[in-house]
Amino acid sequence: MGQKIDRVAVVVDGSEWVAVRPEDFERLDASRRQVGATAARATRLQHEVRLARARLARIEAILAEADSADCVCERLTSALDGPSAARPVVRSRRRK
């Protein structure tokens, strides 16, 4: 953990504000960006889990409908490769 951030309570035009040194503000801003990035990753993972669950439900439905003589390979393949199939997202870490 870093150093404790020194802050001073000030009143500006009747409103209470908190003043911090510029270097402390930079640390707070960096932390805010990290939290934002983590939240974005969590949202993306939540979306991927939703897609995977939907795909699993389609697979379970196909298997539940199948007879013992049925070959469900093609139907399963289409469910896995369909337009809404979850695909891994690969992105560069470099910003453009």
Structural write-up:
By secondary structure, the protein is α+β, with helices and mostly antiparallel strands. It is 55% helix and 12% strand. It is built from two helices and two strands. The chain has helices at residues 22-65, 73-81, and strands spanning 7-12, 15-20. It has a two-stranded antiparallel ribbon with strand order 1-2. Strand 1 and strand 2 form a beta hairpin. Helix 1 (22-65) runs antiparallel to helix 2 (73-81). The longest helix has 44 residues, at 22-65. The model has no long low-confidence stretch (mean pLDDT 83).
Tags for this model:
96 residues; single chain; two-stranded antiparallel sheet; alpha+beta; 2 strands; rod-shaped
Helix content: 55-70%
Largest sheet: 2 strands, antiparallel
Radius of gyration: 25 Å
- Uncertain runs are none
- Spatially, the strands of the biggest sheet line up as 1-2
**How would you classify the helix and strand content by structural class?**
alpha+beta
Instruction: Please report the distance between the alpha carbons of the first and last residues.
Output: 31 Å
Give the averaged pLDDT, no decimals.
Answer: 83
* Outline: rod-shaped
- What's the number of extended β-strand segments? 2
Number of helices: 2
Determine the strand fraction and express it as a percent band. 5-15%
- Secondary-structure element string: EEHH
